[in-house]
Amino acid sequence: MTALLRAAAGLIIWAIVFASLYALQGLACALGWDKWQIAEASLARLVLLAVYTSGIGVLALLCWRYRPRVSRRQFLDRLAFAGAAAGLFSLIYTGLPVVAASICR
Amino acid sequence: MKALRLHRAFEAIWGTPAGWRGSLATVNHSTLGVRLMVTAFVFFLIGGVLAMLIRAQLATPGSAFVGPEIYNQLFTMHGSIMMFLFAIPMFEGFAIYMLPKMLGARDLAFPRMTAYGWWCYLFGGSMLLVSMLLGIAPDAGWFLYTPLSSKPYSPGINSDFWLLGITFVEISAIVTAVDIIVSILKLRAPGMSLDRMPLFAWYMLVTAAMMLIGFPPLILGSILLELERAFGWPFFEAARGGDSLLWQHLFWLFGHPEVYIIFLPAAGAVSTIIPVMARTPILGYGWIVAAILALGFLSFGLWVHHMFTVGIPHLALAFFSAASTLVAVPTGVQIFAWLGTLWAGRPQMHLPMLYLIGFLVTFVLGGLTGVMVAMVPFDWQAHDTAFITAHLHYVLVGGFVFPMLAAAYYWLSHFTGRRYSYTLGKAAFWLIFIGFHLTFFLMHLTGLLGQPRRIDTYPEGVGWTLYNLLSSVGAFVMATGIALFIIDVLLQLFHAPRAPRNPWRAGTLEWAMMQPPPSYNIASLPQVHDREPLETAPDLALSLARGEGYLALPRNGWRETLAVDTKSGRIDHIVVLPGNSLLPLGTALVTGSFFLLVLLKLYPWTLLPLAGLVVLGWRWAWVLGDKHAHGELPIGRGDHAPIHAEVRDSPGWWGSVFLSIADGSLFAALIFGHAYLWTVAPNWPPPALVTASLPVVIAGLLGAALAARRSSGVTVTGAGLGLLLTALLLTAFRLAPSPTSHAYGAVVAVLLAYAALHAALALVICCFARARRRAGYIAAINGAEPRIARLWTDYAVAAGAIALACTHLPALLS
Ligand code: HEM
Ligand SMILES: [Cu+2]
């Protein structure tokens, strides 16, 4: 069972970060964080960017841990790497809007 | 003749007695799978007739064929029947029939659950049919948006039929999903490691997991809406702090994964058939598995694309637009794997192949319009027009109906044992294919010309007339094709000559048995060495029938099959499955009477079926197992294994784990609803919070801590649960504001009720475990039962603690 969990790990992390981004977006607007300017960006954007980049970091680490190696030739090992890579790519792509899109309008 | 002797002996153990009693009591997966498919097909025909009525109405402008009231019922029932009563049960039935055979097992992990699922589906579906016959069918669209579906705008009983009937059917979907997952993970032939599983099993594994996560939000939404309609708890009513968008979220949290839940099993059939047609192994097995895993997850990140027009911030639009385009990637991976397989092999134009080409063409077109509507600006134009109706039918008919027709022709001889004679099927295909594209291609155009969906009539002279007429003609051409398909299948059932075994020379295990299959599937279980056992051992069927595999000796009249280690496929234990029983039917009847009483608003009486369910549930688990240990038993080929009652991770344990995951999904959706209303809904904060009380919280948490302790005996655990329950009930009845005053009070009431229900349930389960131990059942002493009781206790403890925190903390902090 753990082998299956490892195969899904990257995608589970994607799901958690993606859901957090969406939830934080709602929360940030409810609390008015978009109006607090820090340097060039609003607090809302900074929080979202922090979550986005740390999510990418975690997934990149995961990809590195599950990287293909000679000792890991088994199907489920490769699946775990594929899952992590898919999670990483998915997060980079689906989270990209936090960089520029308007947050509360 | 050893094979014949074995056949008689196994048939005596696994068979269904003749007569109506036998038919009511059967738990055999082949019988039930076929029943599900036949029932689902009947619903397909009913949904199809409704579609014809819709098209008849829309054929000409200003039509007076049916009025708006009836028309609303027509499209609502068409959509609901096709989604809930045709597509899902159809692939469930197919999986129930096929999975054990492909995996080299004799039945599914929970045969009585399989039967219970079918009865629930039948009764729930019948409820909806009755509403239609009485002319009071649901009429608020298949996604039943509030406030249209709430009491002020839908005062009749129509929407209640939908909420209760569909929830009833969803129960069946949840238990079937658990059944399927545990069977795939545990009940396989020895040696079938995960990477040797047939692709169809991977598809069904992901599908069933998605059902466990995806259906509970809809069940929750339906419960909330029914509570609002029945008792005025304002979850979705803006004036009292509710939000109708919450319904949309809960619905589409289910609804978008739903379309992938429908597509994946069909894609699984495609991935099974294409390599056989192309006479070459599938290309990129690993890529496909990775793609369906990714699809399973990504499809939960798209639901808001159904809500692009409700007025949400750009950022959220962009998230979901991005995710919606992203799912095209894993879908594309599969399509390229299929095309590559066809390219690498020598495809033969058999009838299933023809339908698969119909699938590829149609589905790819549907995918393209899907990417179009994933673009927010385009969706703003196309939303709620016939363009969407066209898109969804390209995906659903292309992605489900065509593959299932291919599957029907591919596996027909498995069901009937008869050879296919190539006659009407081809004509049927062309009629369906041409009819379909005529109908729905034109609906793209009428949509772009501005024709809204769900209109019962339209004026002349807006330029939609000719398209609509041709659309309707197309629909009738398609219907003729379906009729031809039915005639074709019936002809084959009654007239065709007997088929040779494994007519397509396929490699998967479902062909290693008689056709039609006997009740026990295989007289002995094979040892699997690769993905296509029949490729390397074409005579496997005979050798299995002669009893040369595992479990070839009937013993104690037991229904035996093997459970393996999930990853490696090493033999783990023997599963002794329960035999035929009237319990599933009885339980489904009692469940049905609960829904019926709610529908008739006889609320006090619902206590009767609820008590009945506790009694039946108790009995359900009590009748299993033995009072003396068997130890390691011989399983043939010199191997030994214990029976499931004497191991800690029996199928029952895994079933509980996955059921608790579905339960957790419902709870998570509830917490989400709470948080959503709090942050987004208008008219918050509520006039009054829960009156916080530290003593109650402390008492409840103390109870939780007591119940959670591993070392305490049943008495202490029970006392802890009792204390927790008391704290929850005190909060609900003494400290919380009225559920009708504001959505806050309503959500709090549901949270507390949920936690209290689970505490009470855990109490019952603990009592059960203790009674079983006292009575001397081995499974309660050495087996999984204590572990299962622990699981539900821990769950109740967690739910109770969270519910107490959610209700008291805000007031304590403020
Ligand atoms: C047999 C051929 C079919 C035809 C001719 C057909 C026709 C139609 C038409 C014309 C509508 C639009 C009604 C309106 O907007 O006023 C519709 C709606 C719908 N159809 Fe079909 N359909 C067919 C098969 C299917 C299948 C196989 C499925 C699903 C598996 C399906 C699912 C739906 C859904 C979900 C709706 C939306 C209902 C709503 O708006 O509430 N249909 N269909
Ligand atoms: Cu969708």
From TrEMBL, chain A:
Spans through the membrane: 46-67, 79-103
Lineage top rank: taxon: Bacteria
Keyword annotations from UniProtKB, A to Z: Membrane, Transmembrane, Transmembrane helix
Cited NCBIfam families: TAT_signal_seq (TIGR01409)
The protein, known as: Uncharacterized protein
Source organism: Sphingopyxis bauzanensis
Taxonomic placement: Bacteria, Pseudomonadati, Pseudomonadota, Alphaproteobacteria, Sphingomonadales
Automatic annotation (TrEMBL), chain B:
Gene of this entry: ctaD
Protein name, per record: cytochrome-c oxidase
Catalytic activity: 4 Fe(II)-[cytochrome c] + O2 + 8 H(+)(in) = 4 Fe(III)-[cytochrome c] + 2 H2O + 4 H(+)(out)
PROSITE patterns named in the record: COX1, COX1_CUB
Main location (coarse class): membrane
Any matching Pfam family: COX1
Similarity remark: Belongs to the heme-copper respiratory oxidase family.
Presence of the UniProt keyword Cell membrane in the record: yes
Superkingdom assignment: Bacteria
